[in-house]
Design goal:
Rossmann fold; 8-stranded mixed beta sheet; 37% helix; 16 strands; Nucleotidyltransferase, domain 5; alpha/beta
Length: 402
């Protein structure tokens, strides 16, 4: 390592990138372990040493964000001379460089005899078997000293095609101590920067939606029964700020209880560019009067034009309660006539086609989207509120209003 610079690794990050490194390094980990941040630091050191590095990620939109969030601050703090080309996605430091490529643009992956190959979120990237066998492996064949760091939250043992997941195949080889392989497993609790209470809260949230997901998402285990989610991580794209809006609504999913059960409340806007932006999530355990007040205040704060409220559980109570808070609020009532998964499918398609973007701070909503499976766990209040709001914004169908 270059000792003249300070990069503040955690002990676990040092172990992953500078410990007993093998040719194939397989790192299964829970969420927020710190692998991405650690990889950013390691890439700086490798490039300073003159090495050629490939960083593979899930979607192109994540690359600049990761550079700005995890890599640039360390470059700036250490006054490291560098050049980063946002168009070509290449970081140059001295005689070394880091090429950034994404799985959604597989045609851009080319072999240059890289010294290090980092696959961030390998559980997602390696679903594309062609990308691994026709791009990554040939690169490693071009340089017999190259080292692979495949790291990520496991995403099951079997693909939808019923083939074995390549990340699981690599993990099995490493667990069986195949020569040249190393397997490492970390839970979310292994990140010393996070507090135990933060991880416990995340674990409780995931368990509420899908108990099978806890072993996978928190403890980094390859498990069965943790598949069937509607959304994949690569479907959720982020922006730091939203453009000018043509409409903003707040979707509301009231509970069937009067005792303060969680009520989904999600603010969503339609941009002038035709894309949808998820702006806020104020979901909370509320009594009817409390959720009516909170959703009304959120609508006003966002300068929205309507609450989109499911009336299945509330009936006339929904109308009466909101009128009690503010009789001038426009309300669009919707009725659930189909299953939650069926209602969500058109919205999932919008996400898959990069038509929906999230602003920062929507972690609980995203946890629900990535862990809920039909028939498992609690009702997805945030998802329902999101679906109602997005459907209203993109649908031309007339709905009853009052």
């Amino acid at each position: 390592m270059i000792k003249e610079i300070s990069l503040d690794y955690t002990p676990q990050q040092l172990e992953v990138f500078f410990g007993d490194v093998k040719r194939f390094n397989i790192i299964a980990k829970g969420r927020r372990f710190g692998a991405t941040h650690g990889a950013g630091k390691a890439c700086i050191e490798w490039a300073i040493s003159g090495e050629k590095v490939l960083w593979g990620d899930t979607i192109n939109g994540n690359i600049d964000r990761y550079f700005d969030r995890y890599i640039y601050p360390d470059l700036k703090k250490n006054s490291i001379d560098h050049k980063y080309n946002r168009q070509s996605k290449q970081l140059l430091i001295g005689n070394g460089w880091v090429d950034f490529r994404s799985a959604d643009n597989p045609e851009n992956w080319e072999g240059f005899g890289y010294d290090k190959i980092v696959l961030n979120e390998a559980g997602i990237i390696l679903k594309n078997k062609y990308l691994y066998t026709n791009a990554v492996l040939p690169m490693m064949m071009d340089n017999h000293n190259s080292q692979l760091f495949a790291m990520g939250v496991p995403k099951g043992k079997i693909l939808k095609t019923q083939d074995e997941h390549p990340f699981y195949t690599l993990a099995k080889a490493a667990k069986n101590k195949q020569p040249g392989y190393r397997f490492m497993e970390f839970s979310s609790y292994d990140n010393p920067i996070l507090t135990k209470s933060d991880i416990e809260a995340l674990e409780a949230e995931i368990k509420r939606m899908n108990p099978a997901m806890v072993e996978q998402e928190i403890y980094g285990k390859f498990v069965d029964g943790a598949t069937g989610t509607l959304w994949s991580p690569q479907d959720i794209r982020h922006v730091d700020e939203a453009p000018e809006m043509t409409r903003i609504v707040v979707g509301v999913d009231p509970s069937g209880s009067k005792d303060g059960d969680e009520v989904g409340m999600v603010g969503v806007g339609l941009g002038h560019n035709g894309n949808v932006y998820v702006l806020s999530d104020v979901t909370k355990g509320c009594t009817p009067l409390e959720w009516a007040t909170l959703s009304t205040n959120e609508l006003k704060a966002l300068k929205g034009d309507a609450l989109v409220v499911e009336r299945n559980f509330g009936g006339d109570m929904v109308k009466h309660t909101i009128q009690t808070v503010d009789k001038n609020i426009r309300v669009i009532e919707v009725v659930a006539s189909r299953g939650k998964d069926v209602r969500a499918e058109p919205i999932v398609s919008l996400y898959e086609n990069a038509k929906v973007f999230h602003l920062p701070g929507l972690h609980k909503l995203e946890n629900e989207m990535l862990t809920w499976v039909k028939g498992v766990g609690k009702s997805p209040n945030r998802i329902d509120a999101l679906v109602w709001a997005v459907t209203e914004l993109v649908s031309n169908k007339r709905r009853q209003t009052w």
